[in-house]
Amino acid sequence: MSQLLSAFRLAALPPETHAFREEVKAFLRAHLEPAPADVRARSWMGFSAGFSKKLAARGWVGVTLPAQYGGASLDAFSRFVLVEELLAAGAPVSAHWIADRQSGPLILKFGTEAQRAFYLPKICAAEAFFCIGMSEPNSGSDLASVATRAVRCEGGWRLNGRKIWTTNAQHCHYMIALVRSSGESKDRQQGLSQFIVDLSLPGVSVRPIHDLAGDAHFSEVLFDDVLLADDALIGTEGSGWAQVNAELAFERSGPERIYSSIVLLEHWIACLRRTPGASAHAATIGRFAAHLATLRNMSIAVTTKLVNGESPVVEAALVKDIGTEFEQSIPAVIEAAIAMDPEGAVDPELYRAVAYVSQVAPTFSLRGGTREILRGMIARGLGLR
Q: What is the C-alpha to C-alpha distance for residues 239 and 284, in angstroms, rounded to an integer?
Protein backbone atom coordinates (compact mmCIF):
# COMPACT_ATOMS: atom_id res chain seq x y z
CA MET A 1 0.00 0.00 0.00
CA SER A 2 2.81 2.40 0.86
CA GLN A 3 4.29 1.91 -2.62
CA LEU A 4 0.99 2.85 -4.26
CA LEU A 5 0.46 5.84 -1.98
CA SER A 6 3.98 7.09 -2.68
CA ALA A 7 3.06 7.31 -6.36
CA PHE A 8 0.71 10.18 -5.54
CA ARG A 9 3.05 12.59 -3.81
CA LEU A 10 2.48 16.26 -4.63
CA ALA A 11 3.20 16.68 -8.33
CA ALA A 12 3.36 19.63 -10.69
CA LEU A 13 3.73 20.19 -14.40
CA PRO A 14 7.20 21.39 -15.47
CA PRO A 15 7.56 25.18 -15.89
CA GLU A 16 8.18 24.83 -19.63
CA THR A 17 4.60 23.63 -20.13
CA HIS A 18 3.25 27.07 -19.20
CA ALA A 19 4.30 28.62 -22.50
CA PHE A 20 2.84 25.66 -24.36
CA ARG A 21 -0.48 26.15 -22.56
CA GLU A 22 -0.65 29.73 -23.83
CA GLU A 23 -0.02 28.46 -27.39
CA VAL A 24 -2.92 26.03 -27.05
CA LYS A 25 -5.24 28.71 -25.67
CA ALA A 26 -4.37 31.02 -28.58
CA PHE A 27 -5.02 28.22 -31.08
CA LEU A 28 -8.43 27.51 -29.58
CA ARG A 29 -9.39 31.18 -29.64
CA ALA A 30 -8.52 31.27 -33.33
CA HIS A 31 -9.90 27.94 -34.53
CA LEU A 32 -12.69 26.79 -32.22
CA GLU A 33 -16.11 28.02 -33.29
CA PRO A 34 -18.25 29.45 -30.44
CA ALA A 35 -20.87 26.95 -29.25
CA PRO A 36 -23.39 26.71 -26.39
CA ALA A 37 -22.57 24.71 -23.28
CA ASP A 38 -24.74 21.73 -24.25
CA VAL A 39 -22.73 21.34 -27.48
CA ARG A 40 -19.36 21.89 -25.82
CA ALA A 41 -20.31 19.38 -23.11
CA ARG A 42 -20.07 16.73 -25.84
CA SER A 43 -16.33 17.41 -26.18
CA TRP A 44 -15.23 13.86 -25.31
CA MET A 45 -17.66 12.47 -27.87
CA GLY A 46 -17.80 15.40 -30.27
CA PHE A 47 -16.71 14.17 -33.71
CA SER A 48 -15.25 16.73 -36.09
CA ALA A 49 -12.74 15.51 -38.65
CA GLY A 50 -12.30 19.13 -39.73
CA PHE A 51 -11.24 20.31 -36.27
CA SER A 52 -8.92 17.31 -35.89
CA LYS A 53 -7.24 18.21 -39.18
CA LYS A 54 -6.73 21.80 -37.99
CA LEU A 55 -5.15 20.44 -34.82
CA ALA A 56 -2.98 18.09 -36.89
CA ALA A 57 -1.84 20.94 -39.13
CA ARG A 58 -0.57 22.65 -35.97
CA GLY A 59 1.33 19.46 -35.10
CA TRP A 60 -0.86 18.52 -32.14
CA VAL A 61 -2.25 15.13 -33.16
CA GLY A 62 0.15 12.38 -32.21
CA VAL A 63 1.82 15.00 -30.07
CA THR A 64 4.00 12.49 -28.19
CA LEU A 65 5.00 10.52 -31.29
CA PRO A 66 8.49 10.98 -32.78
CA ALA A 67 9.03 13.64 -35.42
CA GLN A 68 10.29 11.00 -37.86
CA TYR A 69 6.72 9.67 -38.03
CA GLY A 70 5.05 13.07 -38.21
CA GLY A 71 4.63 13.61 -34.47
CA ALA A 72 5.68 16.56 -32.36
CA SER A 73 8.15 14.60 -30.19
CA LEU A 74 6.68 16.22 -27.08
CA ASP A 75 6.37 14.45 -23.74
CA ALA A 76 3.31 13.28 -21.82
CA PHE A 77 3.32 16.51 -19.78
CA SER A 78 2.67 18.50 -22.95
CA ARG A 79 -0.09 16.12 -23.94
CA PHE A 80 -1.62 16.61 -20.48
CA VAL A 81 -1.73 20.38 -21.02
CA LEU A 82 -3.12 20.00 -24.54
CA VAL A 83 -5.90 17.63 -23.44
CA GLU A 84 -6.73 19.75 -20.40
CA GLU A 85 -7.22 22.86 -22.53
CA LEU A 86 -9.17 21.04 -25.25
CA LEU A 87 -11.62 19.57 -22.73
CA ALA A 88 -11.96 22.80 -20.75
CA ALA A 89 -12.88 24.59 -23.99
CA GLY A 90 -15.29 21.83 -25.04
CA ALA A 91 -13.45 21.14 -28.29
CA PRO A 92 -14.73 18.20 -30.40
CA VAL A 93 -11.84 15.76 -30.05
CA SER A 94 -13.18 12.27 -30.56
CA ALA A 95 -12.18 11.89 -34.22
CA HIS A 96 -8.45 11.67 -33.46
CA TRP A 97 -8.80 10.96 -29.72
CA ILE A 98 -8.14 7.23 -29.50
CA ALA A 99 -5.41 7.13 -32.15
CA ASP A 100 -3.58 10.00 -30.46
CA ARG A 101 -3.98 8.69 -26.91
CA GLN A 102 -3.35 4.97 -27.25
CA SER A 103 -3.35 3.42 -30.73
CA GLY A 104 -0.38 5.46 -31.91
CA PRO A 105 1.73 4.89 -28.78
CA LEU A 106 0.81 1.18 -28.88
CA ILE A 107 1.97 0.82 -32.49
CA LEU A 108 5.11 2.80 -31.68
CA LYS A 109 5.96 0.50 -28.77
CA PHE A 110 4.94 -2.91 -30.08
CA GLY A 111 4.56 -2.56 -33.85
CA THR A 112 7.01 -3.37 -36.61
CA GLU A 113 8.92 -0.62 -38.35
CA ALA A 114 6.70 -1.12 -41.40
CA GLN A 115 3.60 -0.62 -39.23
CA ARG A 116 5.07 2.50 -37.66
CA ALA A 117 6.00 3.96 -41.04
CA PHE A 118 2.54 3.27 -42.50
CA TYR A 119 0.13 4.12 -39.67
CA LEU A 120 1.80 6.78 -37.53
CA PRO A 121 2.13 9.52 -40.20
CA LYS A 122 -1.55 9.00 -41.06
CA ILE A 123 -2.49 9.34 -37.39
CA CYS A 124 -0.46 12.52 -37.01
CA ALA A 125 -2.07 14.02 -40.12
CA ALA A 126 -5.58 13.15 -38.82
CA GLU A 127 -6.03 10.94 -41.87
CA ALA A 128 -6.48 7.69 -39.93
CA PHE A 129 -8.97 7.42 -37.09
CA PHE A 130 -8.86 4.39 -34.79
CA CYS A 131 -11.31 2.66 -32.47
CA ILE A 132 -10.72 0.01 -29.81
CA GLY A 133 -12.05 -3.54 -30.06
CA MET A 134 -12.08 -4.88 -26.51
CA SER A 135 -15.59 -5.41 -25.09
CA GLU A 136 -17.80 -8.22 -26.42
CA PRO A 137 -21.45 -9.26 -26.04
CA ASN A 138 -22.04 -11.60 -23.09
CA SER A 139 -18.61 -10.88 -21.61
CA GLY A 140 -19.44 -7.85 -19.52
CA SER A 141 -16.19 -6.35 -18.26
CA ASP A 142 -14.40 -9.70 -18.26
CA LEU A 143 -11.89 -8.77 -20.95
CA ALA A 144 -9.98 -12.05 -20.66
CA SER A 145 -13.03 -14.03 -21.79
CA VAL A 146 -13.07 -12.64 -25.35
CA ALA A 147 -14.38 -15.12 -27.89
CA THR A 148 -13.64 -13.28 -31.14
CA ARG A 149 -11.04 -15.45 -32.84
CA ALA A 150 -8.29 -15.07 -35.44
CA VAL A 151 -7.17 -18.34 -37.05
CA ARG A 152 -4.06 -18.68 -39.17
CA CYS A 153 -4.75 -19.38 -42.84
CA GLU A 154 -3.05 -19.05 -46.19
CA GLY A 155 -2.22 -15.40 -46.65
CA GLY A 156 -2.73 -14.35 -43.04
CA TRP A 157 -5.55 -14.75 -40.51
CA ARG A 158 -9.31 -15.34 -40.63
CA LEU A 159 -11.22 -13.21 -38.12
CA ASN A 160 -14.69 -14.08 -36.80
CA GLY A 161 -16.67 -12.67 -33.88
CA ARG A 162 -18.20 -9.48 -32.48
CA LYS A 163 -17.16 -6.40 -30.55
CA ILE A 164 -19.54 -4.02 -28.80
CA TRP A 165 -19.59 -0.54 -27.23
CA THR A 166 -16.95 0.44 -29.78
CA THR A 167 -16.69 4.22 -29.77
CA ASN A 168 -17.06 5.91 -33.17
CA ALA A 169 -16.53 2.67 -35.10
CA GLN A 170 -18.86 3.97 -37.82
CA HIS A 171 -16.51 6.90 -38.43
CA CYS A 172 -13.15 5.14 -38.05
CA HIS A 173 -10.75 3.66 -40.55
CA TYR A 174 -9.14 1.07 -38.29
CA MET A 175 -9.74 -0.93 -35.13
CA ILE A 176 -7.10 -2.41 -32.86
CA ALA A 177 -8.85 -5.56 -31.67
CA LEU A 178 -7.97 -7.91 -28.82
CA VAL A 179 -8.90 -11.40 -30.01
CA ARG A 180 -8.13 -15.02 -29.26
CA SER A 181 -5.47 -16.46 -31.56
CA SER A 182 -4.99 -19.76 -29.73
CA GLY A 183 -6.55 -21.86 -26.98
CA GLU A 184 -10.06 -21.48 -25.53
CA SER A 185 -11.92 -18.95 -23.38
CA LYS A 186 -10.99 -20.96 -20.27
CA ASP A 187 -7.35 -20.16 -21.00
CA ARG A 188 -8.12 -16.59 -19.99
CA GLN A 189 -5.16 -14.24 -20.65
CA GLN A 190 -3.17 -16.88 -22.52
CA GLY A 191 -3.50 -17.00 -26.30
CA LEU A 192 -4.72 -13.41 -26.82
CA SER A 193 -3.31 -11.16 -29.55
CA GLN A 194 -3.92 -7.70 -30.96
CA PHE A 195 -4.64 -7.04 -34.62
CA ILE A 196 -5.09 -3.90 -36.69
CA VAL A 197 -8.36 -4.36 -38.58
CA ASP A 198 -9.10 -2.25 -41.65
CA LEU A 199 -12.81 -1.56 -41.16
CA SER A 200 -13.37 -1.30 -44.92
CA LEU A 201 -12.49 -4.98 -45.45
CA PRO A 202 -15.12 -7.41 -46.76
CA GLY A 203 -16.92 -9.15 -43.89
CA VAL A 204 -16.80 -6.19 -41.48
CA SER A 205 -20.21 -4.79 -40.45
CA VAL A 206 -20.75 -1.81 -38.14
CA ARG A 207 -24.09 -1.28 -36.37
CA PRO A 208 -24.45 2.02 -34.47
CA ILE A 209 -26.07 1.92 -31.00
CA HIS A 210 -28.20 4.93 -30.00
CA ASP A 211 -27.97 6.13 -26.42
CA LEU A 212 -30.43 7.96 -24.15
CA ALA A 213 -29.31 11.32 -25.49
CA GLY A 214 -30.17 10.26 -29.04
CA ASP A 215 -26.53 10.06 -30.09
CA ALA A 216 -24.85 7.06 -31.68
CA HIS A 217 -21.33 7.14 -30.34
CA PHE A 218 -21.16 3.41 -29.71
CA SER A 219 -21.39 0.58 -32.22
CA GLU A 220 -21.45 -3.18 -32.47
CA VAL A 221 -18.87 -4.46 -34.96
CA LEU A 222 -19.24 -7.89 -36.57
CA PHE A 223 -16.48 -9.89 -38.26
CA ASP A 224 -17.62 -12.53 -40.71
CA ASP A 225 -14.66 -14.47 -42.10
CA VAL A 226 -12.55 -11.32 -42.47
CA LEU A 227 -9.17 -11.97 -44.07
CA LEU A 228 -6.33 -10.14 -42.32
CA ALA A 229 -2.85 -9.99 -43.77
CA ASP A 230 0.08 -11.32 -41.75
CA ASP A 231 1.20 -7.78 -40.98
CA ALA A 232 -2.10 -7.02 -39.19
CA LEU A 233 -0.70 -8.66 -36.04
CA ILE A 234 0.76 -6.18 -33.54
CA GLY A 235 3.70 -7.49 -31.52
CA THR A 236 4.04 -11.23 -31.12
CA GLU A 237 1.22 -13.76 -31.23
CA GLY A 238 -0.05 -14.45 -27.71
CA SER A 239 1.24 -11.19 -26.19
CA GLY A 240 -2.05 -9.34 -26.44
CA TRP A 241 -2.86 -9.32 -22.73
CA ALA A 242 0.37 -7.60 -21.70
CA GLN A 243 0.06 -5.16 -24.58
CA VAL A 244 -3.54 -4.23 -23.85
CA ASN A 245 -2.72 -3.55 -20.19
CA ALA A 246 0.03 -1.16 -21.26
CA GLU A 247 -2.51 0.48 -23.59
CA LEU A 248 -5.08 0.83 -20.81
CA ALA A 249 -2.56 2.72 -18.68
CA PHE A 250 -2.60 5.41 -21.40
CA GLU A 251 -6.40 5.31 -21.59
CA ARG A 252 -7.08 5.63 -17.87
CA SER A 253 -4.46 8.07 -16.70
CA GLY A 254 -5.01 11.40 -18.43
CA PRO A 255 -7.09 14.47 -17.58
CA GLU A 256 -9.88 13.08 -19.77
CA ARG A 257 -10.81 10.98 -16.74
CA ILE A 258 -11.65 13.99 -14.59
CA TYR A 259 -12.94 16.62 -17.05
CA SER A 260 -15.94 14.95 -18.73
CA SER A 261 -18.38 17.26 -16.89
CA ILE A 262 -16.16 20.33 -16.68
CA VAL A 263 -18.01 22.42 -19.29
CA LEU A 264 -21.25 21.89 -17.37
CA LEU A 265 -19.61 22.86 -14.06
CA GLU A 266 -18.05 25.98 -15.53
CA HIS A 267 -21.35 27.08 -17.11
CA TRP A 268 -23.23 26.53 -13.85
CA ILE A 269 -20.73 28.73 -12.01
CA ALA A 270 -21.09 31.38 -14.72
CA CYS A 271 -24.88 31.30 -14.24
CA LEU A 272 -24.52 31.58 -10.46
CA ARG A 273 -22.40 34.72 -10.81
CA ARG A 274 -25.42 36.54 -12.21
CA THR A 275 -28.00 34.93 -9.91
CA PRO A 276 -29.12 36.55 -6.61
CA GLY A 277 -28.50 34.34 -3.58
CA ALA A 278 -25.89 32.23 -5.39
CA SER A 279 -23.63 32.33 -2.30
CA ALA A 280 -25.73 29.46 -0.93
CA HIS A 281 -23.79 27.21 -3.32
CA ALA A 282 -20.31 28.49 -2.38
CA ALA A 283 -19.50 25.47 -0.21
CA THR A 284 -20.54 23.08 -2.99
CA ILE A 285 -18.31 24.84 -5.50
CA GLY A 286 -15.49 24.80 -2.95
CA ARG A 287 -15.81 21.02 -2.57
CA PHE A 288 -15.75 20.56 -6.33
CA ALA A 289 -12.63 22.73 -6.55
CA ALA A 290 -10.88 20.76 -3.79
CA HIS A 291 -11.77 17.42 -5.37
CA LEU A 292 -10.67 18.57 -8.81
CA ALA A 293 -7.34 19.90 -7.51
CA THR A 294 -6.61 16.59 -5.78
CA LEU A 295 -7.57 14.48 -8.79
CA ARG A 296 -5.55 16.70 -11.10
CA ASN A 297 -2.50 16.24 -8.89
CA MET A 298 -2.99 12.46 -8.95
CA SER A 299 -3.31 12.51 -12.74
CA ILE A 300 -0.12 14.56 -13.08
CA ALA A 301 1.65 12.06 -10.79
CA VAL A 302 0.62 9.22 -13.10
CA THR A 303 1.74 11.26 -16.11
CA THR A 304 5.13 11.63 -14.42
CA LYS A 305 5.42 7.86 -14.33
CA LEU A 306 4.59 7.65 -18.03
CA VAL A 307 7.26 10.25 -18.77
CA ASN A 308 9.72 8.11 -16.80
CA GLY A 309 8.92 5.10 -18.99
CA GLU A 310 6.86 3.25 -16.37
CA SER A 311 3.51 1.53 -16.91
CA PRO A 312 1.37 2.69 -13.96
CA VAL A 313 -1.53 0.29 -14.50
CA VAL A 314 -2.79 0.23 -10.90
CA GLU A 315 -2.27 3.95 -10.30
CA ALA A 316 -4.13 4.79 -13.50
CA ALA A 317 -7.00 2.51 -12.46
CA LEU A 318 -7.26 4.37 -9.14
CA VAL A 319 -7.35 7.78 -10.84
CA LYS A 320 -9.96 6.56 -13.31
CA ASP A 321 -12.19 5.11 -10.57
CA ILE A 322 -12.11 8.20 -8.34
CA GLY A 323 -12.24 10.55 -11.32
CA THR A 324 -15.36 8.86 -12.70
CA GLU A 325 -17.11 9.33 -9.35
CA PHE A 326 -16.26 13.02 -9.44
CA GLU A 327 -17.46 13.43 -13.03
CA GLN A 328 -20.75 11.69 -12.29
CA SER A 329 -21.38 13.72 -9.16
CA ILE A 330 -21.37 17.06 -11.01
CA PRO A 331 -24.64 16.70 -12.95
CA ALA A 332 -26.36 15.09 -9.96
CA VAL A 333 -25.40 17.96 -7.63
CA ILE A 334 -26.34 20.64 -10.17
CA GLU A 335 -29.72 19.01 -10.77
CA ALA A 336 -30.32 18.98 -7.01
CA ALA A 337 -29.29 22.64 -6.78
CA ILE A 338 -31.75 23.59 -9.52
CA ALA A 339 -34.49 21.62 -7.77
CA MET A 340 -33.89 23.54 -4.53
CA ASP A 341 -35.52 26.57 -6.12
CA PRO A 342 -38.48 25.25 -8.16
CA GLU A 343 -39.79 28.77 -8.74
CA GLY A 344 -36.49 30.13 -9.97
CA ALA A 345 -35.76 30.72 -13.63
CA VAL A 346 -33.29 28.24 -15.14
CA ASP A 347 -30.90 29.35 -17.85
CA PRO A 348 -32.00 27.37 -20.96
CA GLU A 349 -28.41 26.61 -21.94
CA LEU A 350 -27.69 25.27 -18.45
CA TYR A 351 -30.85 23.17 -18.54
CA ARG A 352 -29.86 21.59 -21.88
CA ALA A 353 -26.30 20.97 -20.73
CA VAL A 354 -27.25 19.32 -17.42
CA ALA A 355 -29.89 17.22 -19.18
CA TYR A 356 -27.32 15.94 -21.67
CA VAL A 357 -24.57 15.24 -19.13
CA SER A 358 -27.03 13.49 -16.80
CA GLN A 359 -28.07 11.18 -19.63
CA VAL A 360 -24.54 10.20 -20.60
CA ALA A 361 -22.95 10.21 -17.12
CA PRO A 362 -23.66 6.49 -16.50
CA THR A 363 -21.29 5.68 -19.37
CA PHE A 364 -18.41 7.38 -17.55
CA SER A 365 -18.03 4.33 -15.29
CA LEU A 366 -18.29 1.91 -18.23
CA ARG A 367 -15.75 3.28 -20.69
CA GLY A 368 -12.17 2.37 -19.89
CA GLY A 369 -13.21 -0.35 -17.42
CA THR A 370 -16.13 -0.63 -15.01
CA ARG A 371 -15.83 0.45 -11.40
CA GLU A 372 -15.95 -3.17 -10.20
CA ILE A 373 -13.13 -4.31 -12.49
CA LEU A 374 -10.98 -1.31 -11.59
CA ARG A 375 -11.44 -1.88 -7.88
CA GLY A 376 -10.44 -5.50 -8.31
CA MET A 377 -7.22 -4.32 -10.00
CA ILE A 378 -6.59 -1.82 -7.23
CA ALA A 379 -7.16 -4.47 -4.57
CA ARG A 380 -4.61 -6.74 -6.24
CA GLY A 381 -2.18 -3.84 -6.46
CA LEU A 382 -2.59 -3.28 -2.71
CA GLY A 383 -2.12 -6.99 -2.00
CA LEU A 384 -5.68 -7.35 -0.71
CA ARG A 385 -6.66 -10.19 -3.05
A: 47
